[in-house]
Amino acid sequence: MQPRVVDDLESFLAALPPAIREVLEAREDRTALIEVVLDLGRPPQARFHDSELGLGEQGVTEDDLQYVISRVGEFGGDNRAGIERTLHRISALRNRKGRIVGLTCRVGRALFGTIRVIEDLVFTGKSILLLGRPGVGKTTMLREVARVLADAGKRVVIVDTSNEIAGDGDVPHPAIGRARRMQVGTPALQHAVMIEAVENHMPEVIVIDEMSTDLEAQAARTIAERGVQLIATAHGNTLENLVMNPTMSDLVGGVQTVILGDVEARRRRTQKTVLERKAPPTFPILVEIQGWDKVAVNKDVAETVDLILRGVAPSPEIRAVDTLGRVRKSRPSAIPIPSGPTAQAEPRAQAEALALKEHPSLPQPVQRGGSPAFTRVLPFGVSRSRLEEVAKGRNAAIQVVRDLKEADVLLTTKNYYRRSASTLRAAESEGKPIYVLRKNTVPQMEEFLRSVAPNGESRGDPLHEAMQEAEGAVRRVFQGEREVDLAPQTSYIRRLQHLVAQRSQVASRSRGREPHRGVTIFGE
Known about the structure:
The protein is α/β, with parallel strands linked by helices. The protein contains 17 helices and 27 strands. Helix 12 (384-393) packs across helix 15 (442-451). The longest helix is centred in the C-terminal third of the chain and has 17 residues, at 462-478.
């Protein structure tokens, strides 16, 4: 079931030079046209969804550019113009003297029905941030959200900085339905118009496109705290991108560095300097747009950001619309190994140690011919002789190797891991697990040896025992028990136990007070 498309393509083609227009009008696939690029002195190009097309061998002339400029509206401070009563966008390239030397003419389309995949979220009343790369359809979905909410009786105000949501001219495009539109004189004033919309027009919902500055993030928080629902877009592929963006991270609560005391650092089993979320997120819901019919939904941004800062990769809900128009929902079933610059060294090492035992795709110690199983370890930046001595003293069944091809697991330290040496990159590309030690010390090595004991035995490793307890509780719930209380654990281990419950699609919640706070897993 495809969404209904309104594109006013005739108005777009009428603004192009005659020679270019004739080539495009002769093509049967012109409805798939995305944009036309006109650069002075170069042959014009047309870009479609899956291809590019040259529009002749002659270079674009000054007359060609002036032909287009004379048929569109005035260019604003963001170097964008439009065609009145349409959604098309014309963006200018200028030389150092301010003269236009290139144009990007983008086809604007209204797609009625694109909200289906997130319609239930839109009507919750919670603020929603739509995240995606340029051209993926953020503005198209935002426009449809504004129309649907306004037609449902909500007071919707669109802050339209570039006239891209509601089209050029003083009369907005019908694609926004009953929503009202406030135009912005210059992009630098978008944050001020956002506040003005709240103070002057009593909206229940404010719709904003392309948030990108500190002032806009502050204005968004002010609006959210006044009880107004915000629907906005921002550039980025995933929530992790936004968390590490110093300008935009405030939209999801912000990030601050916290120095822990010795006791708390030991309790958390982490380093003393950690990253934590600074405040409640402005947008409780974040939608990563992967296409008009597929999105990844983070329903609890606060919890997801906390997971990212603890080094655990988030597991968003994946939604897709099938050919019959039904929304299919799914969620990754495995606890992913964290990666990327947001992962802190110790939580990452703990999660990878857990993955060594639990993840079926990672290598396990192999029993060979009835002899004891050995895990082959390649030390990188770790003292080989000290590791062998510790292993011998603990009677640990490991074999220290010198070649990555022979290794089951690579052992390194935090400092070496941050340098991203070629050996580490090669191990990651081959899918070999990497265990990261905080320091090159005996206690750290002993913790590692407990994690890779033969046949998955943890020899008293509290993390492994806690995860086994959580999985046992899930099995008991499946067998009919209404609820199972787990032993008190640290906040990090409780988070992993919640992920085990989430992976198995059962409910869980924390109970009690520190230091006796634990997890309870519930049946139906």
